[in-house]
Structure formats: structure tokens, C-alpha cells
Amino acid sequence: ASETKKPAPPPTRGTGRNEAAEREASQKAEQEAAAKKAEEERLAAEHEQQQRETQELENDAQEQEDQLSRERKAAEDRLKALEEQVRQGKLKKEEEKRRKKAAL
Q1: Where are the beta strands (DSSP E) in the chain?
Q2: Where is the composition biased (Acidic residues) (predicted)?
């Protein structure tokens, strides 16, 4: 009776649950990491698409500015040519007046 029994070891069933929980947590972490990576890739692709669209819009705007500049220069050139024609016409009329006066 002087000998005391050692307490029984804890049941081993608990460790099985622990391993399953760890596996589940590991799978969940992997899924979350994969989801995070997929989201980052989606955002990167979206950002790249936005940059392409922005560049395209900037290129279009620059092309329109260049076109307007060319049209403005052409209009200025036409105006100068017309002004020169008017000036030449006035000079011609003055010359004709002088000739008429000289003829009289």
C-alpha cells in the first residue's frame, strides 16, 4: 500500500486533433497567401492597363495639339498671303492713279 500509482498519461486523441487543426491552419494560410498573390497580380495588371490608357490619352492629346498648331500656322500663312495680295493691290491702284495724273 506504500506504493502509489503514477497518474495515467494524457489521452493521445488530443494530439490528433492538434495535427488536424495545424494542417487546417496551414492550408488556410496557403489559401490566404494565394488569394493575396492573385489580388496583387490583379491590381498590378489593372495598374498597367490604366498606365497604357493614360499614355494613349496623352498621345491623343499631343496629336490634337500638334494638329491644331499645324492648322493655326496654315491659317496664319493664308492670312499673310491675303494681306500681301491686298497690299500689292493697293500699290497697283496707287501706281495707276499716278499714271492717270501723269497722263493728264
Answers
A1: none
A2: 56-66
Distance CA 21, CA 27 (A): 10
Tell me the one-letter amino acid at 22.
Answer: E
Q: Is 80 exceeded by the pLDDT of residue 10? A: no
Burial class (CB in 10 A: 0-12, 13-18, 19+), 19: exposed
Distance CA 80, CA 74 (A): 10
Tell me the pLDDT tens digit for each residue of 48-62.
999 999 999 999 999
Q: Say what the pTM is.
A: 0.50
